[in-house]
């Protein structure tokens, strides 16, 4: 093929050549194209477009004068249909000219044409049939969107059908096997898009017994069936172009094919050649010809929103008539606008939200609109016909009409000019200059006034004008084929881009690549999450989806619990001598997800409880198992926990405490009564249990039952997998990172160095790199052939603070993102229609670079690439300058330990030590609450010397206490909920009659009293007249530093006062909660509140390091605590509301081991396990007697106190005003030396 071209002026043009042959074989360079050089005569570029595979431009230097020739032999050869030559530079003198010759290969073509009512029926030669695989290959082209290409049937509804549906090829496979699961019985494979473009498309079908490979234009899908049915077990006839006689097994709408086949082969047999020879094997039905002579349509592509095509109207006609077909992905755009020759009447046709809207307007009249069609932005061809004559305005879309009457005045005639797709610049015509952009897509079969428009004449300049059009081809591209949306994301597109809808997928990002969920329960723990159900994604952005598990976060371990459908007791009993079918356990995670969870765990186990009555696990004669369990790989196991596989012993057999010492399991003795064995299965490679089989239930009165617990796994061997890099020249290396279209990298790092490279992987020119570029900058850089791209996250604080920081970077075909910690992520869009594949070939370097420069100093852990965890520790053990593991987690995760809990380092993570906190739980945030009944109390002694006898010298004893427990400051906290007044919330005493008391006055207001000098009156802090005895939860925090006291109530603003009674709390003795009889040295108000005590719920009580409720309810050390009366543990004080809530609190009474009710005996790490029945009865009797004694004593004390102080407590029926007056009277009776503070 030869081509020459000349250009009189110096305007740079593009020369496009379309081969007349069906295919043109040319050659392309093996590697990247050389860069065009600055030639003195001409450089030219060469590019190819190959059946929707995109463009890859290449540049070559041309000749330097008019006589020389430059020749390129390009290998390997490649099939192409278009050549486009782009001159880049030319001689500064003379005319521009170019001559080129393209050499191709011989191509043989045999074609057959179907008219939509014809077909070929081929009867297979049974002797030549391949027993293992059928191979069908062909090429086709058509202008129709639907049609049957081939069909073959079998028995029981079995069939194989290749069908074109809406421009896509669908291969339908029906195995005809009723016993196969639904996914295998009916298979649908879909490939291709926009295949109705009148271009040749290649098809290859490879059909095996249980597998299928389907290829369209080099895009392939593969399916492997798991059943036993044979896809080749079909009849000996196969039809092409349609289904003769409307096939007996076809239950879907069908339409015969209208178009051409080329080079149709079945197992190497040329079927078109057989058809031409009229052999008996081929039956020709209908009008079949052996040439492809369909009339070619000339489409027009509107390349941008500024494109337009201006065509002249039909002069002298009293009507408007326009027809055309269009296809687009855009939901909106201007399709047509014109203005009539006589009168200012405008007609505008737009595409809006996938619908057509035709507007007819005239100044002074209401515009008339017609809306037609829906979903027209689907990339399919849609026909449009609009007409206006007289008072009728109608528009027809795909054969469906919509019309409306109008009352416009003036003559209806054809417009001078019709603008299709847009308007020229600075045009003021109707529909121009508005917010609606121009149309982007393709038009064909355009007619104005019943006269067809030939786009070729437009291209030659003989008709109309245009801008930014591509004539004689439809340049519409399906950007969702192949779909770059991952994990089931739904792809949608416009002219120049695509987007992914990630709703309900569990993933996020531009291509639904990144998982929304944490990788493990251990990761949830170190986010501060408590126990509960969570979705975890063990492989991150990998192919496995998220799985629902229960994360049980305990004080020292995090358990991942995977539930199944058989958690209830399963009874096993034979019926009519037949063994029952075993239950198949189905877990909330798929087998692959279970495998990933167990692979990432340090330990996994599953508890199985066996119940037996006259049934056995094995026979007594030879020990043959009659019961077993099946693991995930369908292997049978006969061992029963605690023992090695193959050893048929239960836990009691290993410990030697079975009911019958002759057997190694309780359920092996076939006893007449129910016995049980609890076994724990802990070999990860065998778990989880999928079936439990118990066969020995066929004998008379023999029964069995079992309960299988959930799969439990602990630890995460990737979350804490880390390495320490000690020199700048050290690094770890791994195999090349494969992330051509989507790549994500995530890890934690900590360092004190100002910079360093975390990860680097190189290609010939492509690369990917993550680095600490500066103390406050992390940079993600890469190149996929479009030039270097950088994304940087900057922090207001340095990253080199020796704390863990989390980095996540992702690069896909649409954008690159980088996020560090909780800082705002940074995103950079990929260039439109640029290179997309990241091609790397070097090793992956972690902690350094190939040049051993700018290496990272510090720790990296939990490194994952596309969801795959890298074992840094294993590689570090064999690499100089790198150590496995990294310590120092509390600096980053210590904040998880709340309420005074202390962070403790572990090799893999942290735990929270709650010994000095009033809370417990994994993060010291589970409040310890107690309900106090009438007359109850808890006394916490600060001294272990409380058992000293009175014979001790009191002065020396006091001196000892003074030396050890003199406080210059303290922090006290408590939460309470009550409706009783007055109440004593907290009382801390000393051997010197100094004290701190927190009380509720008779009107419910809160008072805090400090007395730090026995010779002075206490300082009293009043918190207004608010009633805190309202049945709601209130929190109080007191912080003293010498004479300065800060108080915070219910998280309100902190208030400060200065003490006058002293700066030190001397010889602290005990802390008391509830009822206190005659506290030494206390003022009358504290005495009155102490006698009344406290009835309600207290929680989070703490004074310095002392947590009295925790010491009483959760004993764990040699702490001296005394419990009197009814004190019961409560779940949470905040759970119940309302004035009567304390009485209805869901509580658990303090166990009998806590000591006598009112005996006052101290408890030193008392064991609160339940006593025996007799002891319990005696304890109850003693409890009742002592309660009666306590109540009598309380009544006497209260009566004496009221007589002594004039009984300032109002009667029960008094109003709030009376209570307030009583409180004022009480306060006025206080000694004048007592200082009071009102907030």
Automatic annotation (TrEMBL):
Domain EGF-like: 476-513, 887-925
Gene: LOC101693459
Species classification: Eukaryota, Metazoa, Chordata, Craniata, Vertebrata
Protein name: Contactin-associated protein-like 3
Gene3D superfamilies, alphabetized: 2.60.120.1000, 2.60.120.200, Galactose-binding domain-like (2.60.120.260), Laminin (2.10.25.10)
Keywords, comma-separated and alphabetical: Disulfide bond, EGF-like domain, Membrane, Repeat, Signal, Transmembrane, Transmembrane helix
Keyword Zinc: no
Covalent S-S links between cysteines: 859-886
SMART domains xrefs: EGF, LamG
Residue spans crossing the bilayer: 1172-1196
Family the UniProt entry places it in: Belongs to the neurexin family.
Region described as Disordered: spans on this chain: 1135-1163
Protein's membrane topology: Single-pass type I membrane protein
Domain named Fibrinogen C-terminal: residues: 512-564
Subcellular location: Membrane
Domain of life of the source: Eukaryota
GO CC annotations, alphabetized: membrane
Broad class of where this protein is predominantly found: membrane
Domain Laminin G per the UniProt entry, residue ranges: 111-292, 298-474, 721-886, 947-1133
């Amino acid at each position: 093929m030869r081509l020459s071209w000349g250009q009189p002026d110096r305007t740079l043009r593009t020369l496009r050549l379309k081969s007349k042959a069906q295919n043109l074989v040319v050659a392309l360079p093996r590697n990247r194209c050389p860069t065009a050089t600055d030639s003195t005569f001409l450089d030219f570029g060469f590019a190819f477009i190959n059946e929707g595979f995109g463009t890859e431009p290449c540049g070559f230097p041309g000749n330097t004068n008019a006589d020389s020739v430059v020749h390129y032999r390009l290998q390997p050869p490649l099939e192409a249909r278009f050549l486009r030559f782009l001159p880049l530079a030319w001689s500064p003198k003379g005319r521009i000219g170019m001559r080129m010759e393209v050499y191709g290969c011989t191509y043989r073509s045999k074609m057959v044409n179907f008219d939509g009512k014809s077909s070929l029926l081929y009867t297979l030669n049974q002797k030549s049939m391949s027993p293992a695989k059928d191979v069908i290959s062909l090429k086709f082209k058509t202008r129709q969107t639907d049609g049957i290409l081939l069909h073959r049937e079998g028995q029981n509804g079995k069939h194989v059908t290749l069908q074109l549906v809406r421009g896509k090829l669908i291969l339908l496979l029906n195995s005809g096997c009723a016993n196969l699961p639904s996914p295998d019985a009916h298979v649908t494979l879909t490939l291709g898009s926009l295949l109705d473009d009148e271009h040749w498309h290649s098809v290859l079908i490879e059909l095996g017994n249980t597998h299928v490979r389907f290829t369209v234009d080099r895009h392939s899908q593969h399916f492997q069936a798991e059943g036993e049915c044979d896809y080749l077990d079909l009849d000996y006839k196969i039809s092409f172009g349609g289904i003769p006689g409307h096939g007996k097994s076809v239950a879907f709408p069908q339409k015969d094919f209208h178009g051409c086949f080329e080079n149709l082969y079945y197992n190497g047999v040329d079927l078109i050649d057989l058809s031409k020879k009229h052999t008996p094997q081929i039956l020709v039905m209908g009008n079949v010809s052996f040439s492809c002579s369909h009339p070619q349509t000339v489409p027009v592509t509107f390349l941008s929103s500024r494109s337009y095509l201006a065509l002249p109207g039909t002069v002298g006609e009293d009507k408007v008539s326009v027809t055309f077909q269009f296809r687009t992905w855009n939901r909106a755009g201007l399709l047509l606008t014109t203005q009539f020759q006589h009168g200012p009447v405008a007609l505008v046709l737009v595409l809006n939200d996938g619908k057509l809207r035709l507007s007819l307007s005239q100044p002074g009249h209401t515009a008339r609109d017609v809306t037609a069609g829906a979903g027209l932005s689907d990339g399919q061809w849609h026909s449009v016909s609009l007409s206006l004559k007289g008072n009728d305005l109608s528009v027809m879309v795909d054969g469906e009409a919509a019309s409306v009457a109008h009352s416009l005045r003036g003559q209806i005639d054809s417009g001078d000019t019709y603008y299709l797709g847009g308007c020229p610049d600075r045009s003021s015509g109707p529909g121009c200059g508005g917010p609606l952009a121009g149309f982007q897509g393709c038009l064909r079969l355009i007619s104005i006034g019943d006269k067809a428009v030939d786009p070729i004449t437009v291209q030659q300049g003989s008709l109309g004008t245009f801008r930014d059009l591509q004539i004689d081809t439809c340049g519409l591209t399906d950007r969702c084929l192949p779909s770059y949306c991952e994990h089931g994301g739904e792809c949608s597109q416009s002219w120049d881009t695509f987007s992914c809808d990630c709703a309900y997928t569990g993933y996020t990002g531009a291509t639904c690549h990144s998982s929304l969920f944490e990788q493990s329960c251990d990761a949830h723990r170190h986010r501060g999450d408590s126990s509960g159900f969570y979705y975890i994604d063990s492989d991150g952005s990998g192919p496995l989806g998220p799985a629902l598990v229960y994360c049980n976060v305990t004080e020292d371990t995090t358990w991942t619990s995977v539930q199944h459908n058989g958690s209830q007791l399963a009874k096993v009993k034979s019926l009519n001598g037949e063994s029952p079918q075993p239950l198949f356990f189905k877990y909330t995670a798929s087998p692959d997800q279970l495998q990933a969870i167990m692979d990432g765990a340090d330990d996994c186990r599953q508890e199985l409880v066996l119940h037996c009555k006259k049934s056995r696990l094995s026979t007594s004669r030879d020990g043959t198992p009659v019961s077993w369990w099946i693991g995930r790989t369908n292997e049978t196991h006969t061992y029963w926990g605690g023992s090695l596989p193959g050893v048929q012993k239960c836990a009691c057999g290993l410990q030697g405490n079975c009911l019958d010492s002759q057997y190694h399991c309780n359920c092996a003795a076939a006893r007449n009564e129910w016995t049980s064995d609890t076994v724990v299965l802990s070999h990860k490679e065998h778990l989880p249990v999928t079936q439990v089989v118990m066969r020995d239930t066929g004998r008379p009165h023999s029964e069995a039952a079992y309960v299988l617990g959930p799969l439990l796994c602990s630890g995460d061997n990737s979350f804490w997998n880390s390495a320490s890099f000690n020199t700048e020249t050290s690094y770890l290396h791994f195999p090349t990172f494969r992330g051509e279209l989507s790549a994500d990298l995530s890890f934690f790092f900590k360092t004190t160095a100002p910079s360093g490279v975390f990860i680097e992987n190189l290609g010939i020119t492509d690369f990917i790199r993550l680095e600490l570029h500066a103390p406050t900058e992390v940079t993600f850089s890469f190149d996929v052939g479009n030039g270097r791209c950088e994304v940087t996250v900057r922090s207001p604080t340095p990253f080199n603070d020796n704390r863990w920081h989390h980095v996540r970077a992702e690069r896909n075909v649409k954008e690159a993102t980088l996020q560090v910690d909780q800082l705002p992520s940074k995103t950079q869009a990929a260039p439109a229609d640029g290179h997309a594949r990241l091609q790397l070939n070097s090793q992956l370097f972690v902690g350094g670079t190939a040049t051993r420069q700018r290496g990272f100093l510090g720790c990296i852990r939990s490194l994952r690439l596309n969801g795959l965890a890298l074992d840094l520790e294993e590689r570090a053990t064999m690499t100089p300058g790198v150590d496995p593991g990294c310590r120092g987690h509390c600096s980053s995760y210590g904040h998880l330990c709340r309420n005074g809990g202390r962070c403790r380092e572990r090799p893999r993570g942290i735990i929270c030590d709650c010994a000095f906190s009033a809370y417990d739980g994994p993060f010291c945030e589970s409040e310890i609450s107690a309900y106090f009944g009438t007359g109850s109390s808890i006394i916490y002694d600060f001294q272990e010397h409380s058992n000293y006898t009175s014979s001790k010298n009191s002065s020396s004893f006091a001196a000892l206490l003074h030396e050890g427990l003199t406080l210059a400051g303290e922090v006290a906290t408590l939460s309470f909920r009550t409706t009783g007044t007055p109440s004593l919330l907290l009382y801390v005493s000393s051997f010197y009659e100094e004290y701190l008391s927190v009380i509720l006055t008779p009107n419910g207001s809160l008072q805090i009293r400090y007395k730090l000098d026995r010779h002075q009156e206490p300082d009293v802090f009043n918190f207004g007249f608010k009633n805190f005895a309202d049945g709601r939860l209130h929190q109080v925090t007191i912080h003293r530093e010498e004479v300065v006291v800060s108080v915070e109530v219910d998280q309100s603003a902190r208030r400060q006062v200065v003490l006058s009674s002293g700066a030190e709390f001397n010889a602290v003795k005990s802390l008391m909660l509830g009822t206190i009889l005659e506290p030494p040295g206390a003022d009358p108000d504290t005495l009155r509140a102490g006698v009344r005590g406290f009835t309600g719920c207290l929680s989070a009580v703490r004074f310095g390091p002392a947590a009295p409720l925790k010491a009483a309810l959760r004993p764990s050390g040699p702490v001296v605590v005394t419990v009197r009366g009814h004190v019961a543990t409560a779940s949470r004080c905040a759970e119940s509301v309302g004035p009567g809530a304390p009485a209805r609190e869901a509580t658990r009474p303090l166990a009998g081991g806590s000591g006598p009710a009112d005996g006052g005996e101290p408890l030193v790490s008392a064991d609160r396990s339940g006593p025996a029945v007799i002891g319990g009865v005696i304890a109850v009797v003693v409890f009742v007697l002592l309660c009666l004694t306590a109540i009598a004593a309380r009544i006497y004390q209260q009566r004496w106190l009221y007589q002594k102080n004039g009984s300032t407590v109002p009667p029960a029926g008094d109003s709030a005003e009376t209570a307030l007056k009583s409180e004022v009277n009480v306060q006025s009776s206080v000694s004048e030396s007592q200082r009071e503070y009102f907030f």
